């Protein structure tokens, strides 16, 4: 079956997710629809001296050594395992398609730098020359591979047996959506019948948090932690870092039908647009985000009137939520005031690199279950945002099409449109 | 679906040997021309980037200041490619041009790191000290010079390439996949014009550190990559390489000069065991269209034991040039740089001179088709075929 543009229809046949609310779709979904927050006081590193001391950490997945690279790999493994089990595709260790994985920029962390410094024997005025000397001994060999950008993908490709060269990517906070878009494009090109699309992020560590803190991007309303993320509220003051991963098995509808697979939803359209205005701020006219939304709707062969629900980027920063609201209003017109829009980030925080993929899974569950997870902590409406944000309590609704927004630093705007079922 | 022709209409290259294709070609016409820093990071050597007059491609001082060297190298090379393609400042076309970048990230504030590492062992509460030092010493905007996708972000800001950008990570293979995805999307009609490439700054202790831990850096004095049996390993090289790829019809419609034709790109990943690299390259050669006429190879071999020999054994019996013998190993930018040099060789009708002391042989006649290889130091094998425009 082809879509309106003569391309293979792309469906989802397996999904897996890990968030601070739990491992797996069942736990995450029941917590999200109950309005439960996964934001908590950070316990994995000392927070003394920090303005922000909370995050949506995933604390139930071990990692050795404990660092963002290893944690991100472990989250992804759990999500992929769930997705492939559900899709019942391929054979164990042999996934019949390529992998596209959104991973956080990997880097060596402080425990490793400290270990190198200790091994160098330098005690005063430590420099990188000392670290290099220690590195040359060969006793830190494993860390070379651990801190390469391509290693998470490489290890997962070994384990799950994906085909070809796995692509590790970043489009900042829209990375997860871009991973899905790459998979959709590969299937539409006829390059493959299936693709494994992943977003993962386990980078809540001191320096990562401080970097966002120094850009004044994070909420500092630490008490109570679960009240900090307040998308679309007047008193919102920044995002809360979150962790997690999601994996989606994408397939051409023909392939899914031929093997009798269960279709969980359709990825009907993708849109993207760059923004050259500023490194962290969006164009004042909001056009790049607007064009990305319009592009995704058009790519799906739909009109704005077809969109029944918006899964918001909704970070809870003053700027994003205002601009996103403006963008949605521009694309949908007055009708937008009655189109439900909610932000999963109110409960799980901003899962950064993983967000686009995690929220894609939640959006597909929303369509499938006919139930919209709420935007929690919505007690003080922002008069500048005249939207139905599904405040505080989940809502039942029959939905056909949903749009999920992802925006990121560096002028990244990626939007996906999902359909509940394949159009006959 | 009928597949479209993909043509190369612009190339930008910055390296240790020069700025621009012609400067690089001129330097490489001399068999012994080399720019190697043997002292700054001893016992390691790096090929440092030539000094750039940044104002020429990154006119605003504020933009220059917001970037670290890896980003400046990339934004500069991207500007050269757009200029070469006749697209510089063409707001309308650039606003729909797609951008795919292969890069890593960077860069540390070495002074702050050193200070923290010196103080931590003496601290009563190391966690708190780390927090306080980072909160007070880190430049807030340094983060934006570290984020991988901010090379693309800076290219959007500086040059106005705003169709959409995607950043691929994963060392050498990121550069290969960036070119492959752009190529396949153009062929399939998923985009008409792409700016694709990457950059790498080798003059970074933190980058050297990763490769040093793995034992991949050569300590011994210079030898071409095919002559490193005494101490196998790589020298990292600074630089940036960007290509403008277009559908032939798009390029012709705007009257662009076609520099070369990209006939195919193959990207694969063998599970590395002895013999797998040779086998993967063998498959890659079979997967691409056959080259005819006078054929050459622009190899991205690293000089690492085993895999470099496997690659050499898998290459056809044609003149080969090892780009890392001249420019160093440019990691994510290695493959785009190889394609850039292939384009220049096809355009000018001459390969670089055989590197002094290497096994490279003189070529007879003008090359008509050039294979470009990439064998990642840990993973990933890539191959492209570039042919003359006419």
Features:
heterodimer, A: 424 residues, alpha/beta, Peroxisomal Thiolase, Chain A, domain 1, eleven-stranded mixed sheet, two-stranded antiparallel sheet, 13 helices, 33% helix, B: 390 residues, 15 helices
Short note summarizing the structure:
Chain A is α/β, with parallel strands linked by helices and 424 residues long. Chain A has helices at residues 25-33, 68-87, 110-120, 128-135, 141-146, 151-160, 175-188, 206-214, 253-258, 287-299, 318-332, 345-348, 355-369; strands at 10-19, 22-23, 40-41, 54-55, 99-102, 167-170, 194-201, 244-252, 265-272, 309-311, 341-342, 371-372, 395-396, 401-408, 412-419.
Could you walk me through the main structural features you see in this protein, from its secondary elements to its overall organization?
The complex is a heterodimer of chains A (424) and B (390). Chain A is an alpha/beta fold and 424 residues long. Chain A has two domains: 371 residues, Peroxisomal Thiolase, Chain A, domain 1; 35 residues, no CATH class. Chain A is 33% helix and 17% strand. Chain A contains 13 helices and 15 strands. In chain A, strands 1, 2, 5, 6, 7, 8, 9, 10, 11, 14 and 15 form an eleven-stranded mixed sheet that branches. In chain A, strands 3-4 form a two-stranded antiparallel sheet. A two-stranded antiparallel ribbon of chain A has the order 12-13. In chain A, strand 1 and strand 2 form a beta hairpin. In chain A, helix 2 runs parallel beside helix 6 and helix 3 crosses helix 4. The radius of gyration of chain A is 21 Å and the shape is globular. Chain A starts with 9 loop residues before the first strand and ends in a 5-residue tail after the last strand. By secondary structure, chain B is α/β, with parallel strands linked by helices. Chain B has two domains: 342 residues, 3-Layer(aba) Sandwich (Peroxisomal Thiolase, Chain A, domain 1); 28 residues, no CATH class. Helices cover 36% and strands 19% of the residues of chain B. Chain B is built from 15 helices and twelve strands. In chain B, the strands form two sheets. Chain B has a ten-stranded mixed sheet, sandwiched between helices. In chain B, strand 9, helix 13 and strand 10 form a beta-alpha-beta unit. In chain B, helix 1 packs across helix 15, helix 3 packs across helix 8 and helix 12 packs parallel to helix 13. The longest helix of chain B is centred in the N-terminal third of the chain and has 16 residues. Chain B is globular. At the A-B interface, helix 3, helix 4, helix 5, helix 6 and strand 6 of A face helix 5, helix 6, helix 7, helix 8 and strand 4 of B. Strand 6 of chain A pairs antiparallel with strand 4 of chain B, so a sheet runs across the interface.
